[in-house]
Specification:
Radius of gyration: 14 Å
Helix content: 10-25%
Order of helices and strands: EEEEEHEE
Largest sheet: 7 strands, antiparallel
Strand content: 35-45%
Number of strands: 7
Structural class: alpha+beta
Number of helices: 1
Shape: elongated
């Protein structure tokens, strides 16, 4: 699989400063020599090295990676280019058009 599960291009606003926020969650890959799967999370503004989020199967790896991103951003002000807050990481809100994601196999 070469597509991404999620790609977010937005801004993080802190102390009146706006910083470019780019997050990519890769499609699940099977860990070499293991039964587990992982999604690689790339978010250079949030951490210097990519993080692998593991699950027992591809769906769990995707779910845990998205939950990880949501937990990182839950207390942050994430906005679009027009300054409107994004709430896609709020569990009660579904993914918005400001977030691009790869289609599922069935789509």
């Amino acid at each position: 699989m070469s597509s991404n599960v999620l790609e977010l291009n937005a801004f993080l606003e802190e102390n009146g400063q706006r910083k470019s926020l780019h997050i990519v969650v890769s499609a699940p890959s099977q860990a070499e020599g293991e039964d587990d799967y992982f999604c690689r999370v790339h978010a250079p503004l949030l951490f210097s090295q990519d993080k692998n989020i593991y699950g027992l199967d591809p769906e769990q790896a995707k779910s845990l990676a998205i939950t990880f991103i949501r937990s990182l951003l839950k207390d942050k002000r994430v906005i679009d280019a027009n300054g409107r807050p994004l709430r896609w990481f709020d569990q009660s809100v579904s993914v918005t058009p400001n977030v691009t994601r790869a289609p599922k196999r069935n789509e």
